[in-house]
Each structure stands twice: as structure tokens, then as C-alpha cells.
Amino acid sequence: MASSVVEEKLLENAGSRQVSLPISRVKLIMKSSPDVSSINQDALFLTAKATELFVQYLASYSYKKGTGKEKKTLIYSDLAKAAEESEQFQFLSECL
Prior knowledge:
- By secondary structure, this protein is mainly alpha-helical.
- Helix content is 57%, strand content 0%.
- The protein has 4 helices and no strands.
């Protein structure tokens, strides 16, 4: 189900090459890996877009399952709860 949402978002934005994340920052993070020597512009864009979509999905999932809905806010504990309870976000449980 999550992959279909990501695919839909990518298809919606296929014509535009806009991303909300700063490309230079994403490139800096990618270059921090010792395994990366050069980065293709398409790979950089797709990584930034995939990261953006992941963060959007995590935020919307956490908001729907969280306690901040009454105040229309997303709080840290909502993110941590999503990481603990959802199998798909389990890898984030140590970070959150």
C-alpha cells in the first residue's frame, strides 16, 4: 500500500523537477558516505524526492495515529509512537 502512494506521488510530480529539500544538502549527506565517489543528477533528484515523500508519509501516518489531532499538531511522541507500533517504521525506533 505504501509503495502505491509513493508511485502516485512520483507520477504526479514527474513533469516538475521541484523538491522541497535543498538539493545541495542532500548531495552533502550522500557524499558523506565513503562508498560514494560521484553522484548523478538524476540519482540526486530521485533521492531527494524519495526522502521528501517518505517524510510526508511518516508525518501523515503519525498525525493520523497520534494524539495531537485535537490541536491539529504533530508532536514528537506521535512520531515515536508510530515508529514503535508500525512494522514499516520499526527501523526508526532507535532514532526516535
